[in-house]
Every structure is written in C-alpha cells, then in structure tokens.
Amino acid sequence: MQNAKSCLAEIESLSTNTSSETRRELLRRVTDLFFLTSEQHTPNDAVVFGNVMERIAYELEIEARAELSGRISEIDKAPHHLVCRLASDEIAVAKPVLERSKALTETDLIQIAKSRGQTHLHAISRRPTLSAPVTDVIVERGESDVLVEVTKNKGAEFSSGGINKLAQKAREDGHLLTALGKRTDLPPDIKEDIKKRVADKIKAEMTDQQIDANMDDIDALVDKGAANLDLDAFKSADATLRARAQSDDLGEQELVEHANAGRLTDVVHALSVLSGLDTRMVSHCLLKADVAALGILCKANNFEGTTFLALVKVRNADQRLRSAEIARAMRDYESLSVENASRTLRFLKVRYKASAEENPAS
Predict the structure, then answer these.
(1) What DSSP state is assigned to residue 251?
(2) I need a labelling partner for 256 at 20 to 30 A (CA). Which of 34, 102, 211, 286 fits?
(3) Is 193 helix (H, G, I), strand (E, B) or coil?
(4) What confidence tens digit (pLDDT) does each residue in 95-121 have?
(5) How far is it, in rounded angstroms, from Cα 261 to Cα 271?
(6) What is the Cβ-side half-sphere exposure of residue 72, based on CA atoms within 13 angstroms?
(7) Considering the domain boundaries, does residue 129 fall inside one?
(8) Which of 65, 89, 104 represents a domain boundary (last residue)?
C-alpha cells in the first residue's frame, strides 16, 4: 500500500477520468487513503470518506462493491452509513460486512435480519458474537440451514424464548437437533430432552436400516457426550476406517490420537477395525463393562500400555478416576498375558452374544 501523499496524488490524477476501470482504481486509492489515515479521522472525516467511497462504488459493477465490502469489513471505525448500505446490498457484496464488520450495531443487524432473505440471515449467523435480540429474529425467520448455522455459533447468545423455539423446530429437523445437542448453554430440561431425541432418532434409523446394534450401548454413547451422532456420519467413519485398515493405513497410534482428542465415535470405529470386533461389543467394553474388560480387549490385540491408558481416560472422562485406581488398572494390564487375554476375550464374546440374543433391541 502507498503512503498518504502518493495516494492523494494518484487520486487527483484519476479523478478526471470517467472510464469504469479508472473509477475502480480510484475507489481502491480512496480506500487505501482511508486505511492509511484512519487513526487521525474525526467522525466528520469518516462521513466524508464514506460518502466519497459510496458514490464511486455505486457507479460501478457489483464486483467493485464486493471488493470494497471485503476491505472495509476489517476496519472497526468504518463509515457507518456506507457499511449499512453494503450490508443491505446483494449477498456477494453484503457477506463480508455482515460476517465481520464491527461498525454494524445491534439495531442494524436486527433491521437487516427482519428485511432481507435467507442468505443475509446466514451471513449474520456467522458473526463472532451475536446478542439475543438478534438471534431472536434469526430463529423466528430462519430456515434450516440458517438455524443450524446460528446454533453452531459458540458466540451466539439466545433468549429463553429463542432456545425454546429452536428446540421446537428441532423436533422435525435432525441436523438442527444435532447442532442444538452440542451447545453447552442449554437449560437442563431442554438438554435432557435433546439428548433423548437424538438417541431415539439414532435408534429409529438403525432399526429402519436393520443395523446390528445394542440399544443400551447406543444409550451409553449418548450419555458419554456423543449426542451429536448421526447415522450417516457414523456409517461413513466406519467404512472409511475399514478401507484404510485393508491398506495398512490405520494403526494403534491413530487410535491413541482419537482417544486423546476425545473423538469417541472414531475411537469406537478404530477399535472395532483393529480388534476385529463389531462396534456394539467394542462400545460395551469401552463404555459399560468393568475396566478389566477393556484391558482384556486391548491386551488380546497386544496394544501398548499407553494405548490402554488413553482409552481408560476417554472412557472415564466424566468419572475422574483417582490416580491410585488408574495405577492399579495399569498394573493389572501389564501383568496380563496376551494368551490369557485372548482366551478370556473369546469367552466374553460368547457370553456377550448370548446376552444380546436373550435381550434383543426393541
């Protein structure tokens, strides 16, 4: 970018030429000058710059206005009137300022959210922070994609009415249900209702598609914080990992990485692939059975002690095992032989299968 003096000189030389390309270059230079001198602007200076940039921009095609919007969105003290006009323009122009500009006030955002369409609502939904009065309008007017976007936004605040309306709309929208289940600021009653609906939805889809799964184990997955599970993602992860295992591109280290990152679904699938057990038995050993069952599964597959420890930690993330209990589990694991673990695992598989047949999923 040039210095202010050279910008002024170039602006003067460009100002008499009325060709489209020259006017576009003139807009760039005026914007450059605004950037260079923004720290010294009085409120009146900002208004004057805004009027000049607005007049030139709206003599030009949409691409020039979109370029201006992208640049001006980064300036906290951008000319308010100019930013408001850009924010109400076509979405290609409006998107940068709607998503990022701090010059837009809560009142501005509410007015735009009430008057413009879904693409503008979607852009507003992506702002780093959103107040409850703004999200109230978005929840009222937004369609599914917009509602999912604003629900996923960790910087969005919701009124109690907004949250209740989202929960109502989520009854018929699985994607919104998934997004809502991830929020940490839900009232306890709504959180429990969402988790129950997620579990019921997964169970229903698994039953409809005749996927072999123990419903108690699905409940355990949800209770362990996997309320964002959806069937397509679950099946896709499983298929991807199995394909990688066949090409020797999946190993114990990746299992540890998934565990350390708390990616429970990926842990279940990776452990299933590496051990050759179905996901329902893996889920049972990982989440519900005594920790000794998890140790037997790991030792039968000759996993390192560090792998077992990572799985113990992810299994007990909400239980906070005392260090002495973890140490005892590690000592038991180290003393267990691969041969004994393999023999015991075969017995557990038979017992688990018999139990599943006696108590089929309803």
Answers:
(1) -
(2) 211
(3) helix
(4) 999 999 999 999 999 999 999 999 999
(5) 15
(6) 36
(7) no
(8) 104
Tokens representing 264? Answer: 């429970």
Number of domains in the chain: 2
Lowest mean pLDDT among 70-79, 163-172, 282-291: 282-291
Sign of CA dihedral 345, 347, 350, 351: negative
Domain membership of residue 83 (yes or no) is: yes
> Is residue 324 assigned to a domain?
yes
Nearest to 270 by CA among 285, 252, 286: 252
Q: Among residues 88, 104, 120, which one ends one of the domains?
A: 104
In tens, the pLDDT along 119-133 reads: 999 999 999 999 999
How many Cβ atoms from other residues are within 10 Å of residue 226's Cβ?
23
Q: Which amino acid is at 339?
A: E
Q: 190 in helix, strand or coil?
A: helix
Q: Are 330 and 308 in contact (CB under 8 A)?
A: yes
Taking the whole predicted model, whether its pTM rises above 0.70 is answered as no
In whole angstroms, give the CA distance from residue 217 to residue 82.
56
Would you list the DSSP string of 189-204? HHHHHHHHHHHHHHHH
* Distance of alpha carbon 233 from alpha carbon 216, whole angstroms: 20
Q: Is residue 1 part of a domain?
A: yes
Q: What is the DSSP letter of 130?
A: B
